[in-house]
Amino acid sequence: QVQLVESGGGLVQAGGSLRLSCVASGRTFSSNPMGWFRRPPGREREFVAVINWTGATTHYADSVRDRFTISRDNAKNTVYLQMNSLKPEDTAVYYCAADVSYSHNFYASTEGDDYDYWGQGIQVTVSS
After folding, report:
1. Max CA-CA distance within the chain?
2. Three-state SS across 51-101?
3. Are β-strands 46-51 and 34-39 bridged in parallel, bridged antiparallel, or unpaired?
4. Between residues 12 and 105, which one has the greater pLDDT?
5. Backbone Cα Rg of the chain
6. What is the dihedral of CA 109, 14, 72, 95, to 10 degrees?
7. What is the rounded distance in angstroms from the CA atom of residue 15 to the CA atom of residue 103?
8. What is the pLDDT of residues 63-122, one digit of tens each?
9. pLDDT for position 105
10. Residue 45 is inside which H or E element, if any?
11. Is the Cβ–Cβ distance between 31 and 103 less than 8 Å?
12. Whole-angstrom distance, CA of residue 108 vs CA of residue 32
């Protein structure tokens, strides 16, 4: 059974930091793009950051650029999201995802509908 399991979420004060991790099991995604998306309370899912299989290509939402950093360790089948200078508007359920449509490619889609595998999500709450 293929699983993506997020960890590292929780409650933090504004200005603080959290590091999310997403570990894959059941198969490897080391050759595929992976991404982080989030669903704020009462809103639709939105793109946060994506990374291609080597880490050479990354894309960030304007709202998180220069505060969040996506990275990956293919040997550990893990993708990370370092979140600094957190704001209350970053409060959301965060999901990691894998796109198996592309393999060994520079491409990484920012569209959630392009992703095939999803984690169960993890809550991040930023208090003011």
Report:
1. 42
2. ECCCCCCEEECCCCCCCEEEEEEHHHCEEEEEECCCCHHHCEEEEEEECCC
3. antiparallel
4. 12
5. 14
6. -50
7. 37
8. 999 999 999 999 999 999 999 999 999 999 999 999 999 889 889 999 999 999 999 999
9. 87
10. none
11. yes
12. 8
Instruction: Say how far apart CA 97 and CA 42 lie, in whole Å.
Output: 21
Find out whether 81 and 70 touch, Cβ atoms under 8 Å.
yes
Which pair of structure tokens corresponds to residue 115?
């992703």
6, 121 Cβ separation under 8 angstroms: yes
Count the Cβ atoms, other than its own, within 10 Å of residue 33: 28
Q: Six-digit token pair at 107?
A: 């491409």
Coil/strand/helix, residue 114: helix
In the predicted model, what is the mean pLDDT of the chain?
Answer: 97
Q: Which two tokens stand for residue 16?
A: 């603080």
Q: Are 88 and 126 in contact (CB under 8 A)?
A: yes
